[in-house]
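The instructor's notes for this session suggest beginning with a concrete chain rather than abstract definitions. Hand out the sequence below and ask the class to guess, before any prediction is shown, which regions might be ordered.
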Amino acid sequence: MGRYYRNFKSGGTFFFTVVTEKRQQFLTTDLARQCLRRSFHEIRSRHPFEIIAIALLPDHLHSVWTLPDNECDFSLRWRKIKETFTRSFLASGGTEVEISASRKRHGCRGIWQDRFWEHTCRDEQDLRRCVDYIHWNPVKHELVDRARDYPYSSFHRFVRLGEYEWEWGKTDPCPGVTYPE
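After discussion, reveal the predicted structure:
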């Protein structure tokens, strides 16, 4: 098995893709959104980070975070968010998919894929590309025709902040850019 190397940069800004187990399509349900919101809130209170941008799609999410200057462990934060979400989601009636006996022996549940994908934002232009990709993603997946029509992303906050015009995203803002889905 290959080794996974993470770029643990103290105070860094990172783009993430996190995917549900077997691409289950539940993340945009009311229950999942409530559990995810509580999980983020709880973990951020103990392990701070700033959410720059986020888009929640039915089977995956994309997010950009900035960690505090003296912190670099985003893996801990994702592990805790996934654990907290899973407990809350299952306790509230959410369901999981069947997983292998090996994964069960390791204490895994059928909610999230084991790992996540991470990209370190190198500069302001790279950060902008990641944020644009996040807000364009629901259009890319043909969930909506325009970014403004998608309710489960930070796009509307960016419009309020003056970062985007209401009509932003009529065309793909980052053609040729691909990140794991």
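Then share the key points. Residues 13-123 form a domain with the Alpha-Beta Plaits fold (CATH 3.30.70.1290). The first helix runs from residue 30 to 46.
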